[in-house]
């Protein structure tokens, strides 16, 4: 339970920094003053007593830094310092700032669009009941293209599968993508498509 108390104390100290720094300075001054008084009581001159007391005490700045490291959350304070520094640098160069913001906006927008597309096509389940029971049967041709589906064999196979209600509830058939000639007002046009069952 001591570590919880220490952790809470460190987080609270983040919001009371000025007060704690003032207390620390008062305490450091009190220690140094006591050491000076001790040296003066031994008969040392006041200037020499101050120098001796500071030498014995060690670095005041280092002591302050060690205390700050122990009382706070150093990594959080470092992040806050880094963010402040970055904000100052971005304020100094508005052209770079605008470029960085636009680059981030485009990157985030592109990522969002790609994820939305992948989510809609691949990650979400199919919008049909019992999507986990769907089956795809496929007949592929070999490397020579000799064996495989054609229009004459696909239709009878699909009709035969439709009659097997003990295996499939319903069947839908389609052929692979191909091109069809469609006659329009301006003449015949090649249109990509697939033959599908009703």
Stretches where pLDDT is under 50 for at least 5 consecutive residues are none
Strand content of the residues, in percent? 5-15%
Please state how the strands of the largest beta sheet are arranged side by side.
Answer: 1-2
Percent of residues in helical segments? Answer: 55-70%
Compute the number of structural domains.
Answer: 3
Shape: elongated
Overall SS class:
mainly alpha
In angstroms, what separates the terminal alpha carbons? 70 Å
Roughly what is the average pLDDT, rounded to an integer? 81
Number of strands: 2
Count of individual helical segments: 7
Polypeptide structure, described:
The chain is mainly α and 198 residues long. It has three domains: 2-92, no CATH class; 94-124; 131-193, no CATH class. The chain is built from seven helices and two strands. It has a two-stranded antiparallel sheet. Strand 1 (178-184) and strand 2 (187-193) form a beta hairpin. Helix 2 (17-41) crosses helix 3 (46-57) and helix 2 (17-41) packs antiparallel against helix 4. The longest helix is centred in the middle third of the chain and has 30 residues, at 94-123. The mean pLDDT is 81.
Characteristics of this structure?
198 residues, mainly alpha, two-stranded antiparallel ribbon, 7% strand, elongated
In short:
By secondary structure, this protein is mostly helical. Helix content is 63%, strand content 7%.
Topology of helices and strands:
Elements: H1 2-15, H2 17-41, H3 46-57, H4 60-71, H5 74-92, H6 94-123, H7 151-162, E1 178-184, E2 187-193
Antiparallel strand pairs: 1-2
């Amino acid at each position: 339970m001591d570590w919880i108390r220490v952790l809470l104390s460190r987080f609270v100290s983040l919001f009371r920094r000025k007060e704690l720094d003032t207390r620390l300075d008062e305490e450091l001054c009190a220690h140094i003053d006591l050491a000076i008084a001790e040296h003066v009581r031994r008969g040392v001159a006041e200037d020499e007593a101050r120098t001796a007391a500071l030498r014995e005490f060690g670095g005041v700045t280092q002591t302050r830094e060690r205390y700050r490291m122990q009382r706070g959350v150093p990594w959080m304070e470092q992040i806050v310092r880094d963010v402040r520094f970055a904000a100052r640098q971005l304020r100094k160069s508005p052209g770079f700032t605008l470029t960085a913001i636009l680059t981030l906006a485009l990157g985030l927008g592109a990522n969002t669009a790609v994820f939305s597309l992948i989510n809609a096509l691949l990650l979400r389940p199919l919008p049909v009941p019992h999507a986990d029971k769907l089956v795809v049967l496929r007949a592929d041709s070999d490397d020579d293209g000799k064996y495989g589906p054609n229009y004459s064999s696909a239709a009878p196979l699909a009709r035969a599968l439709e009659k097997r209600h003990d295996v499939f509830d319903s069947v839908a058939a389609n052929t692979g993508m191909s091109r069809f000639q469609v006659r329009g007002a301006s003449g015949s046009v090649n249109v990509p498509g697939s033959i599908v069952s009703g």
